[in-house]
Write a structure and sequence with these properties.
alpha/beta, 8-stranded parallel β-barrel, 9 helices, 37% helix
Length: 262
């Protein structure tokens, strides 16, 4: 049975961020994920997790100066020191929040001709980060983002992240299979889920192409969830979608799975 993590960056926006943990717990979620925890003290977040009984499935390394187009530093030449500080910060929070998996934000490629340079910088940075995280039993992921959402991101296709995983060559580095992005770029989700099981270390979902609740559009999530069970995926499925309206009113899709969350 799929184990779902509410994405608190995108869901329960009806209340402030720190109140979203309790909202998720009240709706039957046992786990959460979010983009970034760094605006809050890790001790404060750890206390909220203790009070709500929630687990943290995933969060990201920092994006950097998003107002000026940054979306990670792991693939940027000359920003290695920034990435080192960010990955150490992420590990600090992962340890405090008992979170096993951190998603590494790579970079928006500044110019098309620099893509291969960015790729090589990313591989070197990820190898160092993976060694650091392995000392604590932690896992890193990388997520392909469709160009409609993040133009010029270092990788858009699942096949690009799979090739990078092989090039990095570290046992605690995995791809992150977001079925929304995968459908928008690659399609053939059955193939991606079935034939590459064990390569992806975290899953996220949303309707395609709307990115709303997983109960509309091109993807049959009833089938998809059964397929993840069939291939033996035991990780979390993050609900990284934009609710059509009130978050709670849109959780009808979750009802059949609520009693089996743990």
């Amino acid at each position: 049975m799929p184990q779902f993590a509410a994405n608190l960056t995108m869901m329960f926006k009806e209340v402030d961020f720190l109140s979203r943990f309790e909202q998720a717990a009240q709706c039957g979620f046992k786990a959460v994920e979010f983009l970034w925890p760094y605006d809050y003290r890790k001790e404060e977040l750890a206390q909220i997790l203790k009070e709500t009984g929630l687990k943290v499935a995933l969060f990201n390394t920092t994006a950097g100066d998003t107002a000026h187009g940054e979306w990670g530093h792991a693939g940027l030449a000359g920003r290695e020191a920034d990435f080192k500080a960010e990955i150490e910060q992420a590990l600090d929070y992962a340890l405090a929040l008992d979170c096993k998996t951190v998603h590494v934000m790579s970079a928006v490629v500044p110019y098309p001709e620099e893509k291969e340079l960015c790729r090589q910088v990313f591989i070197k940075n990820m190898r160092r980060a993976a060694d650091l995280f392995a000392q604590h039993g932690k896992v890193l992921t990388m997520e392909a983002l469709c160009p409609d959402i993040k133009p010029r991101y270092l990788y858009h296709s699942q096949y690009e992240t799979m090739a990078l995983r092989e090039a990095i060559g570290k046992d605690n580095v995995f791809t992150q299979l977001d079925t929304f992005h995968a459908q928008m770029v690659d399609g053939n989700l059955t193939h991606l889920i079935r034939d590459f099981a064990g390569i992806y270390g975290h899953v996220q979902i949303a309707a395609a192409p709307s990115r709303h609740e997983p109960d509309e559009g091109e993807i049959d999530y009833g089938y998809i969830f059964k397929l993840f069970d069939e291939v033996g995926y035991h990780g979390y499925i993050g609900c990284e979608y934009n609710p059509r309206g009130d978050t709670k009113q849109g959780l009808g899709w979750f009802e059949p799975y609520k009693a089996e969350q743990r």
